[in-house]
Write a structure and sequence with these properties.
There is one protein chain. The protein has a single domain, classed as Orthogonal Bundle (Hypothetical protein af1432), CATH 1.10.3210.10. 23% of the residues are buried. Helix content is 64%, strand content 0%. The longest helix has 24 residues, at 128-151. The chain starts with 6 loop residues before the first helix and ends with a helix. It has eleven helices and no strands.
Length: 199
């Protein structure tokens, strides 16, 4: 039996899928780079939870989950938020499409590793707490994108920032609030400002 698989070639195409497709972007962001940032932030949220709020999460596992959180988009593309959440029926149907895409990718994975990748891609394998950390990191990274665009003078992201700010506050999450208070303000500073502050 051949070990040939198109799984990794598909994943490599995540860099070709741009996020925020209906909005003017000063700097285009693709799904691959977004996924790396989400993994880094999810890892940090898990560490914060463990160190300061009695968590027992595995930060490394959560970071890996986050790396794969949007892989279905290599088959579906990135559906814009206003379309995805236009009404409950569209939201529900899109979830079904995402599930089909996830299953298709899992089927593409090399047989010897299929269960390993299913545990990362299929959300049914994730605990509620793990899923929340990855989702919160995803929203935080979208929020950071709005700060970046607004700092560059792009008012297109003004309402998105307001919406995401409310979502983050409504989480009432200690680890999210910790990250927002201590680390997010740096994202609005210039390179000179963050460099000088460290000296």
């Amino acid at each position: 039996m051949s070990d040939r698989s198109h799984f990794f070639a598909h994943l490599a195409r995540l860099k070709l899928i741009n996020r925020w497709p209906l909005m003017h972007n000063v700097r285009t962001e693709n799904v691959q780079e977004h996924s790396l940032q989400v993994a880094m932030v999810a890892h940090a949220l898990a560490l914060i939870k463990n160190k300061f709020f009695n968590g027992t999460l595995n930060p490394d596992h959560i970071a890996t989950m986050a790396m794969f959180h949007d892989v279905s988009e290599v088959l579906t593309g990135d559906l814009p938020t206003p379309v995805k959440y236009f009404n409950p029926a569209i939201k529900e149907e899109y979830k079904k499409i995402e599930k089909i895409a996830e299953n298709k990718l899992i089927e593409m994975a090399p047989e010897a590793f299929r269960e390993d990748y299913a545990a990362l891609i299929d959300h049914h394998y994730h605990s509620e707490e793990e899923a929340f950390i990855v989702k919160a990191a995803d929203v935080l990274c979208a929020y950071l994108k709005t700060l970046e665009e607004l700092a560059a003078g792009n008012q297109e992201f003004k309402l998105a920032k307001k919406r995401l700010d409310k979502i983050l506050k409504d989480y009432h999450s200690d680890e999210v609030d910790y990250f927002l208070t201590r680390y997010v303000p740096s994202f609005s500073l210039s390179l000179d400002e963050i460099t000088l502050d460290e000296m």
